[in-house]
Amino acid sequence: MQEMTATENQLDQVAEAILKAYPEERVFGFYGEMGAGKTTLIKAICRALGVHDVTSSPTFAIINEYWTDGGEPLYHFDFYRIDEPADASRVGFEEYLYSGHYCFIEWTEKVEEILQGDFIPITIERVDDDRRRFLF
Asked: What is the pLDDT of residues 8-61, one digit of tens each?
């Protein structure tokens, strides 16, 4: 497990470190309190992967799809508003998981039973107003 402490201006470095640490992995689960920076870190990872689309939290849509420069899709999930794992299944979550493409999941704790431990957990902790600790 790695640990980094960074400001928002250093998130590109955190994103690169995560991708370098797990070059073969495609499913990442993000943990952290509301406002910890889950969406902001996912935006940085998307940039590192060559996504030029506008990235935002799919809080109401549950899933956003983005495309890399290489024409590969990646999927960003936000399960804050679901009540039970079956709600994720109804949007075809498992199909995305096994697609072989990147999947970034906010509020992972709500779908852990579907994931069955088959993902890389990334925890974000607030250090102070400007800095976050990233565990991966």
From this structure: 999 999 999 999 999 999 999 999 999 999 999 999 999 999 998 878 887 778
Helix ranges (DSSP H) in the chain = 11-21, 38-48, 85-90, 93-97, 112-115
Ramachandran region, residue 17 (left: φ > 0; alpha: ψ -120 to 50; beta: rest): alpha
Please state, in angstroms and as integers, the Cα–Cα distance from residue 126 to each residue in 31, 38, 122, following that order: 12, 11, 13
- Contact yes or no for 73/54 (Cβ under 8 A): no
Beta bridge partners of 78: 106
Q: How far apart are CA 117 and CA 67, in angstroms?
A: 26
Give the number of domains in the chain.
Answer: 1
pTM: 0.93
Output phi, psi for 2, to 5 deg. -110, 155
Identify the CATH number of the domain in which residue 70 sits: 3.40.50.300
Closest among 89, 28, 43, 30 to 62, alpha carbons compared: 89
Question: Checking phi first, is residue 45 left (phi over 0); if not, alpha (psi -120 to 50) or beta?
Answer: alpha
